[in-house]
Amino acid sequence: MIKKFEKYYNEERLFSKTDKILLAVSGGRDSVAMVYLFYQAKLNFGIAHCNFKLRGKESDKDEQYVCDLAKELKVPFYTTSFDTKTYAKKNKQSTQMAARELRYTWFAEIKEKNNYNYIATAHHKNDVAETLLINLTKGTGLSGLHGIKSKAGDVIRPLLCFNRTEIDAFIEGNKLPFREDQSNAETKYVRNKIRHKVIPELEKINPSFIETIFNETQHFNELEQLLEAKINEDKKLCWKVLKDGTIEIKIDKLLNLKPLRTYLYYFLKPYGFDDEDVVDVMNSLNKQSGKQFYSSTHQLIKDRATLILTEIKTNDKQEFILEKMDDFNILPFVLNVQLVPKEQLKTIKKNKKIAYLNAEKITFPLVVRKWKKGDKFKPFGMKGTKKISDFFIDEKFSLVEKENTWILAATNKIIWLIGHRIDDDFKISEKTKTILQLSVQ
C-alpha cells in the first residue's frame, strides 16, 4: 500500500519529498491510516486536530488520542476546540457546514503560521462517490460531478487512490488503533444515509460501483476543464471589465452564444447567481431596461445594450459632511484636494475627473452625497439650470453610473457633479486669486 501511495502523490504532483505537510486528523480510521502512510514514507508532516465539542467526553477522548499519536511519532501537534453549535446557530448554518468552515479557517492559520506547504485531508474513493451522489441530489451542474479533486489550492487529498476496503485492510494489517465516531452509523445525516443505504443497493447492481464512479469523476473533471476553456475563450466576445471593477456584458454579443443558458450560468455562477437567476436574466434580455437581479454579493442590472455586474458595497452611507479641508479623506473614494494660487497653475487639463474651482466662492461646511431626484445645477458653459436626471440622459449614463454618482455641494448649491461636470457659478475667472483643485481617481 505504501508503494501505491507514493506512486499516487508523485503522479498527481500533490507535493514533493521536501514539502512540509499539515495533516488534518480526526482520530478515525481514515486519518490514522494517512498519518501512518506519511510516517512510513518518511515525509515531513505535522498533525492538526479540531475538537468540535459535539460528542461530550468522546470528543475529548478523540483529542487526547490524536495528541498521544503525535507524541508517539514525535511530530508537531496542534489542537483547538470550537463551540460549533453556537457558531452554527449564530451564522444560520447546519452543524456540518459550521464545522467545515471552522476547521478549514483554523487549518489555514496553522499552515501560514508554521510554514507548511499543504493541508492534507484523508478523503478516499468512497468519499468521492458519496459526494457525487449528494451533488446529483442537490443539482450542482457539471462542477458537482467531478466529486473531490486530489488538489485544490493548498489542500491535497493523498488517499484518493484508495477505497474503503483497502484502508480497512491497511488498518487491520498494521494493527493500528483508531477512534470510532458513533455518529457515522446514524442515518439522519444525508452523507450517512447515502453511505449506508444507497451505495449498498447500487453495489448489488455493480459490485465495482465505487471504482466505476471514481473513474467517471476523472472523465467529468477533464470534460469540465475543456468546457471552462471554451467558456473563457468566448467570454472575451461580450465581456468587458472597467477600471472600477464594474463588468459590462454586451447583450447583442451574448445572444450569439449557444446554448445561451449554459454560457450565462458559467458567466454568472462565480458571482453567486444560480440557475433560477439565469433563467430570469435570460427572460429580461429583450425587455425594457432597468430590471435588477441580486446575489448575496453582486447586483446585475439590465441596461439598454448591456448587462452591468457590480459588487454590492457594504458601506451604504449616502452623505458626508466636510467641516474643513482635511475632511476630504473621510470619503469612501479617493478625492485629492489642493489650493493653488492662480499664477502657479500653468495649464488646465481637459479632464472631467479634475475640477478647477474658484476657491473664493466656496465656504465650509461642504457636503458630499449621492444625487437625489429633483437635484439641479448649472452645467459648466451653460446659462440655465438643468436637472441632474436630464443631464444623465443627455450624457447617456448607464444605470450603474447613475447609482454611483456623487455630488459636492455647499448648503443647497451643487458645486460639482463629481467626475463629470462643475457648476458654472464656481468656474475660475480672471478675478480668481486661488483655485481649489479637486481630482477623483
Our count of helices gives 14
Measured on Cα atoms, how large is the radius of gyration? 30 Å
Shape: elongated
Percent of residues in helices: 25-40%
Major beta sheet, specifics? Answer: 6 strands, mixed
Terminal Cα span: 60 Å
Class derived from helix and strand content: alpha+beta
Low-confidence stretches: none
Per DSSP E runs of 2 or more residues, the count of β-strands stands at: 21
Strand order of the largest sheet: 3-2-1-4-6-5
- Average pLDDT, rounded to a whole number, is 89
Portion in beta strands: 15-25%
Give a topology summary:
Elements: H1 2-11, E1 20-24, H2 29-40, E2 44-51, H3 57-73, E3 77-81, H4 84-90, H5 95-113, E4 118-120, H6 125-138, E5 151-152, E6 155-156, H7 164-173, H8 190-205, H9 209-235, E7 239-241, E8 247-250, H10 251-254, H11 260-268, H12 275-284, E9 292-294, E10 298-302, E11 306-311, E12 319-322, E13 335-341, E14 354-358, E15 366-370, E16 376-377, E17 386-387, H13 388-394, H14 399-403, E18 406-410, E19 413-417, E20 421-422, E21 434-440
Parallel strand pairs: 1-2, 1-4, 2-3, 4-6
Antiparallel strand pairs: 5-6, 7-8, 8-11, 9-10, 10-11, 12-15, 13-21, 14-21, 15-18, 16-17, 18-19, 19-20
Question: Would you summarize the structure shown here?
Answer:
The protein is 38% helix and 20% strand.
Task: Describe this entry's structure for a reader.
This protein has helices at 2-11, 29-40, 57-73, 84-90, 95-113, 125-138, 164-173, 190-205, 209-235, 251-254, 260-268, 275-284, 388-394, 399-403; strands at residues 20-24, 44-51, 77-81, 118-120, 151-152, 155-156, 239-241, 247-250, 292-294, 298-302, 306-311, 319-322, 335-341, 354-358, 366-370, 376-377, 386-387, 406-410, 413-417, 421-422, 434-440. It is of the alpha+beta class and 441 residues long. Strands 3-2-1-4-6-5 form a six-stranded mixed β-sheet, with helices on both faces. Strands 7-8-11-10-9 form a five-stranded antiparallel β-sheet. A hairpin with a 2-residue loop joins strand 5 and strand 6. Helix 4 (84-90) packs across helix 5 and helix 11 packs across helix 12. The longest helix is centred in the middle third of the chain and has 27 residues, at 209-235. The radius of gyration is 30 Å and the shape is elongated. The mean pLDDT is 89.
